[in-house]
UniProtKB/TrEMBL annotation:
It catalyses: (2S)-3-sulfolactaldehyde + NAD(+) + H2O = (2S)-3-sulfolactate + NADH + 2 H(+). CDD domains: ALDH_y4uC. This is 3-sulfolactaldehyde dehydrogenase. Signal peptide: none annotated. Belongs to the aldehyde dehydrogenase family. The lineage of its organism: Bacteria, Bacillati, Bacillota, Bacilli, Bacillales. Part of the sulfo-TAL (or sulfo-SFT) pathway, a D-sulfoquinovose degradation pathway that produces sulfolactate (SL). Catalyzes the oxidation of 3-sulfolactaldehyde (SLA) to sulfolactate (SL). PANTHER family: ALDEHYDE DEHYDROGENASE. The keyword Metal-binding does not apply. Residues 16-473 form the Aldehyde dehydrogenase domain. Its EC number is 1.2.1.97.
Length: 482
């Protein structure tokens, strides 16, 4: 039985509209179409941006309490319709139904935190009299919204990444125009429905669907867009930075996340955590475990246990609650992963487990003896493949972990606080998880990386700071009294 194909509209300037052309959204598990979505034109993207700017400029007052109320209503709506959201995520993307339910829970929390942080967009008084000659001056600074935010989101977290753009933007009082990933636009459209149902004033939110080549450049380069917030691959992020011009940028890009396992670690805990970190969401996760460095004294035991635990994962139907891993986002990506693994094997790597593809499915795969010259050793695989290396020491592990052009997150397993702090000090990453894999995040924490992993930090409080500007106010007092 074929799934009924649903005709969708996109949100442009607060209005639900069709496109002259459409494209199909398919379930990667079986390639069945599940929805037909507008293929926006450049003119429609311009309309969304200009409506957003006009709405922002003509809204003289948008009280904080109204923004809080809208965000709270959206979060509550998501909780009340959690299963509907989860089924959308699981049907259009790679996540299993259980993973999708977890994403809905996180996304609702992201929106709720945005409501809470809207209360705390504060400034500070400034001591102008610290400067000689300014004894008669007093003042402060406060934060004000920047205007129009342009946002581009990836397919791997099609709801929560969208929430991380829209939530802080609305909390700060901005208008936002969002282009979701073309393969997973349905979650973003459903979240847009929640905002409109909550009473968001028309024009403050647009979700424009279509080709990045057709409308992405327009969003990035339009002069009315004061900030571009992008989550995606490093190559695409670099192109955006070249095109955007003099505007704010927030770039959460790729990674090749390392985890270090030392001899004094809890081996069972380290295996459980790294297997989950490597293969959840089919490895399509920017902080997923890709490289594991294990001290030689426990290397073989760790590897054997890691292989055994990986072999227990159930690969299959995303909607089955017993499934641990579904397909990649499409067969093209599965073939790319297959090619990278084959290249590594041709350069001397050993496949300890997995290494097989069937359509968009790729088995969870463990490689050892991977050459530094292999693509998979230096780049982000964004698939269910993990590389395991023996190391002589923590020093060697840190050196190898740092030897890539990424630095998003890392993990280390040890019971020695001194070794933990050595890693904290010397690993060049945006976040380091002690006795956790790299794949740990809460939505309130600052999230971002170093080197090729991005610019700036997400996490609601930190995104709001990026989506606002500081304005200084100084009063020169005159002591003459009438």
């Amino acid at each position: 039985m074929h799934t009924k194909v649903k005709a969708m509209k996109m949100l442009v300037g607060g209005k639900w509209v069709e496109g002259k052309d459409t494209f199909e959204v398919v379930n990667p598990q079986n390639n069945e179409p599940i929805a037909r979505v507008p293929l926006a034109s450049k003119e429609q993207m311009v309309e969304a941006i200009e409506t957003a700017e006009r709405t922002y400029r003509t809204t003289t007052v948008w009280p904080t309490h109204e923004r809080i109320a809208i965000l709270t209503k959206v979060s509550n709506y998501m909780k009340e319709h959690a299963e509907e959201f989860a089924k959308v995520i699981a049907s259009e993307g790679s996540k299993t139904i259980n993973e999708a339910r977890g994403e809905v829970k996180r996304a609702a929390q992201t929106i709720q935190i945005s409501a809470e942080e809207a209360r705390r967009i504060n400034g500070e008084t400034l001591n102008f009299d610290q400067n000689e000659g300014s004894e008669n001056r007093v003042g402060y600074y406060y934060r004000f919204p920047i205007g129009v935010v342009g946002a581009i989101t990836p397919f791997n977290d099609p709801l929560n990444m969208v929430a991380h753009k829209i939530g802080p933007a609305i909390a700060a009082g901005n208008a936002i125009v969002l282009k979701p990933a073309s393969v997973t636009p349905l979650s973003a459209l459903k979240l847009a429905e929640a905002f409109m149902n909550a009473g968001l004033p028309e024009g403050f939110l647009s979700v424009v669907t279509g080709s990045g080549r057709e409308i992405g450049d327009t969003l990035v380069t339009h002069p009315a867009v004061q900030m571009v917030s992008f989550t995606g691959g490093t190559e695409a992020g670099e192109k955006i930075t070249q095109k955007a011009g003099t505007k704010k940028l927030s770039m959460e890009l790729g990674s090749n996340s390392p985890v270090i396992v030392l001899e004094d670690a809890d081996l069972h805990d380290a295996v459980q955590s790294t297997v989950s970190g490597a293969f959840s969401a089919v490895g399509q996760n920017c902080i997923g475990v890709q490289r594991v460095y294990v001290e030689k004294g426990i290397y073989q035991t760790f590897l054997d246990t890691f292989v055994n635990r990986t072999s227990e994962l159930n690969v299959g139907d995303k909607m089955d609650e017993l499934t641990d891993m579904g397909p990649l986002i499409n067969e093209k990506e599965a073939k790319r992963v297959e090619n990278w693994v084959n290249e590594a094997v041709a350069k001397g790597a050993t496949v300890e487990f997995g290494g097989k593809r069937e359509g968009a499915y790729y088995t969870p795969t463990i490689l050892t003896n991977v050459s530094d010259e292999a693509t998979i050793a230096k780049e982000e695989i964004f698939g269910p493949v993990v590389l395991v290396y023996p190391v002589d020491s923590l020093y060697e592990a840190v050196e190898q972990a740092n030897d890539v052009n990424y630095g998003l997150q890392a993990g280390i397993f040890t019971s020695n606080i001194n070794q933990a702090f050595y890693a904290i000090k010397h690993m060049n990453v945006g976040g380091i998880m002690i006795n956790d894999s790299s794949d740990y995040r809460i939505d309130a924490m600052p999230f971002g990386g170093t080197k090729g992993s991005g610019i700036g930090r997400e996490g609601i409080q930190f995104a709001i700071e990026a989506m606002t500007e500081a304005k200084v106010v100084s009063f020169r007092l005159q002591e003459k009294l009438l």
